[in-house]
Amino acid sequence: MARTGSKATSVRATAVAALVSVATAGAAAGQETAECGERASLHVLVTEESGALNLPGATVVLRWTGDQVLRPVRDPAGPDGRFSMCVPAAARAATIWAEFGDDSSEEAMVAFEPGTPVEVHLRVLFGDTEPGRVVGRVLDASTEEPVATATVSLVGRPAEVQSDRQGRFALTGVPGGEHLLEVERIGYASLRYQVTVVRGLSTELQVGLVPAPVEMEPLVVTATRPRRLEINGFYDRKYFGELVGGGTYFTLEDIDRRRPLRVSHMLADAPGIRLRCPGSGFRDCWVESRRASGGFTPGGCELSAYLDGSPIPVRELDTLVLPVEVAGIEVYQGAGELPPEFGGYDARCGAVVIWTK
Fold first, then answer.
1. How many structural domains is the chain composed of?
2. pLDDT bracket for residue 49 (50, 70, 90)
3. Do residues 204 and 222 lie in contact, with contact meaning Cβ atoms separated by under 8 Å?
4. What are phi and psi of 229, to 5 degrees?
């Protein structure tokens, strides 16, 4: 799966402002220099993609990697787009990225050494628009019977289609953004409806045409959902799971905003889950649950893992699927949260379920 609207870019170091203390890290950019002593220091510059324009107030996010459990950082850059902090003494590595509105930079992995400054340049990617689709059905608003041969188009665009005998239609190659949908059929009042198209996704409509000259309000129901997630029950589990507080769910929009380097990095954002990266913290990472024994068990408590419904070794998750291929993620901390289809004798630690596009 390719991330919609993203461009490949590199994350490189550049010179940034002076040091500040941990106590003022949240508003560090632009303040006076403070010595970090024997601890490492981190200096971040956030710009737009070309690097020519700094982004004031952009959010800088750090997730610490390795065996140490440290509180993540999520603080704004200063008015010059710069952020600085003294790194906790226990920290050895981190994943770092920047967010600005609905867009974000790619992630950077950084390692820390005592007394050594680390400088990072994060470029926020403002995605290009990829075409989406508008699909749906045209029905009679009074009888709810399909309406065939209705003409469906978007105002200002040349393409138009006609609904089939089941009332179905599909407009493809539609740019993301706001469009005015027009539906016409002899014997019915014309309908115009403002529809939002999401890049790379299908926007589903159910259109109810009113027989002329009966005075009724036209009916439109709108939904945008990746088809694989819908078929495999992701949204049903998400609805009931969030209703009763069971499980953590990441949609395509969550993944697109986060832009993780690896799938395991996204999973580590789920409550009760930690990312375990022996050694440097850059490779061979996997996720563990703290639920099994009231805390992390000796040697770790590895979750079960499923990819498109098939069981896989959780330690091989990052090698089997890339973040850009993922449409949705389900994370269950323990056997008590698991839906029946993902249970089993080895599910005491919970499970992670990955769905691709």
1. 3
2. confident
3. yes
4. -65, -40
Q: How many CA atoms lie within 13 A of 43 on its CB side?
A: 18
DSSP-derived secondary structure letter, 49: T
Residue pair 44/38 in contact (Cβ under 8 Å)? The answer is no
Residues 101 and 187 in one domain: no
Closest CA to 203 of 136, 265, 122, 139: 136
pTM of the predicted model as reported, rounded to 2 decimal places: 0.41
- How far is the C-alpha of 177 from the C-alpha of 242, rounded, in Å? 29
User: Is the distance from CB of 123 to CB of 149 less than 8 angstroms?
Assistant: no
Region 242-265: mean pLDDT is: 86
Region 48-64: mean pLDDT is 87
- Identify the helix (H) or strand (E) that includes residue 252: helix 252-258
**Per the domain annotation, does 16 fall within a domain?**
no
Whole-angstrom distance, CA of residue 45 vs CA of residue 96: 12
| 277-297: average pLDDT | 58
- Looking at residues 132-151, what average pLDDT do you find? 92
CA-derived radius of gyration, the chain: 25
317-337, pLDDT tens digit by residue?
Answer: 888 989 888 999 999 887 788
Among the listed residues 98, 116, 111, 141, the one whose alpha carbon sits nearest the alpha carbon of residue 19: 116
Return mean pLDDT, the chain. 79
Cis amide bond preceding 76, omega within 30: no
Q: What range defines the domain where residue 202 resides?
A: 132-224
Q: Would you give the DSSP letter of residue 158?
A: S
Per DSSP bridges, beta strands 326-332 and 248-250 are antiparallel
